[in-house]
Hints:
44% of the residues lie in helices and 11% in strands. It is an alpha/beta fold. Strands 11-10-14-15-16-17 form a six-stranded mixed beta sheet. Strands 2-1-7-8-9 form a five-stranded mixed beta sheet. A four-stranded mixed beta sheet has the order 4-3-5-6, with helices on one face. The longest helix is centred in the middle third of the chain and has 26 residues, at 313-338.
Amino acid sequence: MTLALDLSALESAQPLDAAPDQGSLDAALAAAITEACQRIAPVWPLASFVAVNPFLGFADTPFDEAARTLARQTGARMLMPRSFYRDAVQSGRISLQDLAAATQPHAARGLTPDVILAALDQPPRAPISPTRIATVAEVLDTLSAGDRQVSRTAFMVDEISKWCAAYFDEGQAVWSAPWRGKPLLAAWRIYVRHDANARAMGVRNLSRIVAELPEPPLEAIRQVLEALHIPPSAWGEYLYRALFDIRGWAAYVRRLDWEAEQAGADGHALADLLAIRVIWGYALFRQRDDEAFRTAWRQALAASTAAAPARGEDDLAIDLILHAAYERGYQARLVSDLAAGPQTKRPLRPQVQAVFCIDVRSELYRRALEEAWPQAETLGFAGFFGMPLAYGDAEGHVHAQCPVLLQPSACVEAHAPAGAASRRAGQAFWSRFKDSAVACFGFVEAFGLAYGAKLLKAARPTAGHDVPPPEPHLHLDHVPLASRIDMAHGALKGMSLTRDFARLVLLVGHGSSTVNNPHAAGLDCGACGGHSGAPNARFAAALLNDPQVREGLAVRGVAIPADTWFLAALHDTTTDDLWLLDLAKVPASHAADIVVAKARLARASAQVRAERAPLLGLTPSAPEALVARSRDWSQVRPEWGLARAGAFIAAPRRLTAGRNLEGRAFLHSYDRHADADLSVLELILTAPMVVASWISLQYYGSTVDNRAFGAGDKTLHNVCGRIGVLEGNAGDLRTGLPMQSIHDGTRFVHEPVRLNVFVATTPQAMSQVIARQPGVRTLVDNQWIHLFALDDAGRTTHRYAGDLAWEALS
């Protein structure tokens, strides 16, 4: 291959590593590609938009070190600006005691509270060096700073994004690209033969440059790295840095590989996308042949072997201490609340037991229901109720109703209403007619006025409460009886409900009501894959009411009284209505129970709406405005979702009942005295706690650096291929949360803290589980999660200190 740039000067200034054999180079490159790809966290499409930890690829790295690495390599932040912590100190949000505790591990370095307080009045002396190794596009952009020339990085990202949108489109485009179905890199190689946009923007001979490179992605990447004279020691960093430029699409493709790996196959799509990104950089490299560029590129390469610490490390250490103090402030208040001890006595037999999802929005409703109905007992469990379903709804769509970390173990179909198939066919024809390139203009002329009423209704939303449409009946018979018994037993044991059943047990799934909201699935149940939890609740209720299942449970020591009836319900988290489902199946013996339940639930719903109203800028005396928000097409904040989430508490309800946890805590029921083998504890720490940490860190990342880990301004979003959103009409796919999900226009509503996990058990029990669960140990040892032990009175006795050690707390 002939290079357009003489690199002899670079060779003398930047000596290559000693040449090992080709096999070793191939292995090193494969490892570097794998490392770069695994640094990218997966993201799910809009239809199943669920929370993902954006730092998942750094889980095996300590939190502080990850903050330094990201700041140095990409310029992304994992902490708030210094002014944020200064305001927290001035307002008392960070106390002197918090600061003293946070600085104690750093006293030997001279970072005392006085030093930290003095630094609050000074801006950081220098920013962290953006990268140890720059990309070609970044060097070109630096050289052309101040020119009118379009940013090479932005142009490259736009071109890759445009192509990905066409390749991965999930039905938004009327016409599919002809090369869809081919492997990613192979399809792109076909595409560039006919794309003239690069040439029009000054990138000459792109198709010839691509044709000169080998077709296998590993060989193409190796040839580019060698041509750029990037030493093997910097391969991993350069490749990750390249992927970070297109981190939105990289995250989407990482999800495809993730699912392939879960199915036992090898995922290679992200390596293909990485090859496309690297080749694009090489094509830009081939455009310049002048001394200014040679010098700039030489300096970029030299930075890859620099041993000196990046500028601003001392300031980052100060900010890390301030952040630790900020988190300790929240922990101290929660520890104090829990230490008040049990507030209520459990009724011998409650009139009703209501099992809610552990979602933080349920905390408000549980508290309100217990006030409105003192004879009620509430419990917390993951909102899919231990029923990992592949659910075929009445419209013919099949989706996973379980956390993305799990695979569905049962397939359930719903009866389609009469005429549903013909209605679907008619809707599909109507949609094609509207979108057709031939008919669309005639459609507007012929039918445009008919949409006037819809537009007027959208502009003037009403506040009336909707009644959910009747749910279709589920096909359950083809799920084997033994599997149904296993699922029912696992669910009851997991929610610590194996005895003292009430006459009426509500299984309360949750969903949301919004319109014109691409991220609507993010407000639904994450435990149900970003869907409503109603199908899982209904399936679980049907199993637990099944006489054959109850017989099997009795054999296992779980005896459900004959007068206990399980009933599915749905909590709308936007309007805080709570609907009882499948009432036609309720036996006449429970009619009076249903009447009482409806009245108490209505009272609880009104109380929750009044409590949530001020946080949305509404007055408690006009809570109906919450319902109107759910129908307002222009509403960018229909609700706050899981914003402000800060804690996960696994304990009996008596340790948290009566406390106002402000809708900030995931509440999971757990009775250590009924868990001798620690199986329930292990389930909680490996599944619900991990999912809660994903949620917490998604909100955290979107808050500390929305540019890098969030979705930007919601008012500028354009849906792209039904996959995700662009901010504007170009650029990379945006992941994470929009600013409107964490900020009210004046201040941040979400507090960026890592998840604080409190478990009512002994440190020794948790250590046993942590020791045999390397994934959990990685999270807690590297301080992505703060872990605490509670005693039976609610007092916080120990803090996890790492490496299976615990710090006793007074």
